[in-house]
Amino acid sequence: MKTVQEIARDAAGEGAEALLDRQFRAPGIQALPELLQPFVFDHYLLAGRHAIIALQRVLNQKGETCPRSGIICPATLRAARRVTDQLGDLLLYACAYDRRDTAYHFAYIAKERRCFVAGPNGTKGARITEAEAFLPPEKHLSLAEHQERLSLWV
């Protein structure tokens, strides 16, 4: 799994520090538990505040009560700390599953998004591989499982 600094360097090269200021520190991602920071930052670069809403959704699914506002507020920080303490890596996996499932959902309902989910010849697209980068290999969908999901589009 990549670190926050590696993600920033890959995304912005020499502008990595400016990217960290605007897209990591400004929204408050650095205040989240360290385990969640690379995942939320990577997702935030693609989805903006929707990455925070997705985190809040997962935290609420785990029994917490935090607003789905897209803002990292004190309630979100408390919930993230509690659930991270309780579940550890399993929270990260839940967030990655949610990100992957959301990508499939949006591709199902919006044809123009399918290119991000399915590559040529039914391979996994960028949104799927990006989500699975935060899962251990045994939690990745096989190509057959991926193609089964794609078959729902017809």
What structural category do the secondary elements indicate? mainly alpha
Cα Rg: 16 Å
The total count of strands amounts to 0
Compute the number of helices: 9
Would you identify the regions where 5 or more consecutive residues have pLDDT less than 50?
A: none
Order of helices and strands: HHHHHHHHH
For this entry, what is the oligomeric state of its chains? single chain
Q: What profile does the largest beta sheet have?
A: none
Would you write up a description of this structure?
The chain is globular and about 45 Å long. The protein contains nine helices and no strands. Helix 3 crosses helix 4 and helix 6 packs antiparallel against helix 8. The chain folds into two domains: 4-87, no CATH class; 96-153, no CATH class. It has 154 residues and is mainly alpha-helical.
Key words describing this protein structure:
mainly alpha, 9 helices, 63% helix
Write the layout of secondary structure elements.
Elements: H1 4-12, H2 16-25, H3 37-47, H4 49-61, H5 74-87, H6 89-109, H7 114-117, H8 126-132, H9 143-150
Helix pairs in contact: 1-2, 3-4, 4-6, 6-8
